Structure prediction request, 206 residues.
Amino acid sequence: MGYSLFIDSSDNLTLGLLDEKMKWVEFKTMASRKSSGVFHGLIEELLSLNGTDIFGLERVFYAAGPGSYTGIRLVEGFSQILRWRGIETNSFYLFETPKILGVESGIWVSEAYKGELFLYDWDKDSTSTKLLKKEDALDYLSEKNEKLFSLNKIDDLDTSLVLELLEESPEKVFSDIKERNLNRDPFYYRSIENEFTKPKIVKGRL
Prediction:
């Protein structure tokens, strides 16, 4: 059977196994951000329980972001190794999911750490991204009359969860990604320089 693997480590770790018709055989999210410590073992376990291994996969789909630097680099590095071994891979941005499913306009919202929210707006004609302090983002969203989407639940916002959309409609999403042969570059909330900048310590009297 031509299984395909789905991986999302942009926040918590989500793994899924798809059959040749792009329907879920298994789909589960592990409520832990410490995915690097369990990542490879959980993938091996998932595949073994379904009678296959990495080299028996037809394809690997993975989320290229948006997300934390550590989580995105984890799955990107793993996928590079698979490509070197001749396994097909496709990557996509989680905020593309609603549009693939026919939602013509909306706003993706995700917690970008450091007290900020990342926003991705889209409609038929344009897209835009913003990284705002949470209070500014909430003010911005309150002025909009758009459907909201997110990876996880966010306080003070009513959003549709994208992983639930993926769980409900895998055939349409992954068939589209495969047909267009999407391979997105890693998408981080900030540049590497800004992500790891430490606050300056000023010496002197208090």
User: Anything to note?
Assistant: Residues 22 and 171 are 5 Å apart (CA to CA).
